[in-house]
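Researcher: Sit down with what I've pasted below and flag anything odd:
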Amino acid sequence: MPRRRRVKEKSSSTKKKISFLKILFYIVLTLGILYLIYSLVIVFSVKTKDITTEFSSSGYILSERVDSLKKTLIILEKGSGENRRITDVYVYLTNPDKQFEIVIYLPAHIYYTGLEEKFGNEIAVASFRYAGDFLEKGRGVEYAIWQINQLLGFKSDKYIYFSSESLEAISFDYDGPNFENIKNLNSHLGFLHMLRYASSLGSLDEKIYSNIPFYDIKLEIQNAGYGRSKYIRKIINLGEDDFLVEGSLVTGDKIKVLNTAEYDKVFRDLFEKVLDRGLENERVRVEVYNGSELTGVASSFGRKIVNTCCDVVRYGNAPNTEEKTKVYVSNMEKFSNTYRVVSDVIPIEFETVEGRPDFMTTGDIVVVLGKDIKSMYSF
């Protein structure tokens, strides 16, 4: 009889232990699920800030054309105050219809010509935000996006600007300019990392400047860093010597300047692989003439049109100055896709004329730039 009692007592103790472990397991599981829900709520509630809405500048610096080609600009920075600098720039171009993608990498130490009139020197990409804030306080991020698009010769339709504060919030460790930084950033936006730092994600609110929500940003970074499955992927690394020429500042310091002609050549060869099919099939001849009082704008606009894969057969000065920009289209129905490209490159209200100008031209679409384009250079 005493022996049976000991067996029963042991059995009862084992059952209590199992019951306790079950309760503990369910408590831990419940807490885990609650923390997961909390983390997901935090992730989906993080707010990005679209700086283009504040000054209604979206049409000036971003493409508003809708087609199968998607272009995402990604910018990383570090530092604060006068030490705030852009570090890395990526552009991710993809066309799901063609399963082809291009990544352009631009190290921020590279200099860009054409800004000497305002600043007395070539300007490094690293200083674009600082330069923009110098010209008009509070518009440095806008200026950086606009100027990078100018440098690359086309407009992005999405942008993601990681301020140094946003990268600190996700504990991103910067280790110098490097294409691999996009992959490092992707790991810091990973699920497990987000779970670990969920409590600090609330501080991310409006520290990432973007026209897309935070939960879409992770996918864009992943695709830019690693590419999509079964897509053909090409990388243009503008930090390579082939894309750079030697230059010097007025101080005598040696610098590396982007060779835009070499970049344009490589980019245009690849860009046809991601071009929208509707635009690809038109093959329109475009001419651009400068009727404004600004110098060099015909070639600048012509470059942007070519870098969107339209054929600019001639550009130069118009016979007369014009107050308002005009776009002449010989056949609107036949060349509608190219017309939309040209319209997107000229982000001001212009006059559309179905026909040809009164001077000799051979293009299917003829652009005559007027004095009104000055508003595009408001920075």
Observations:
- The mean pLDDT is 86.
- The longest strand covers residues 85-95.
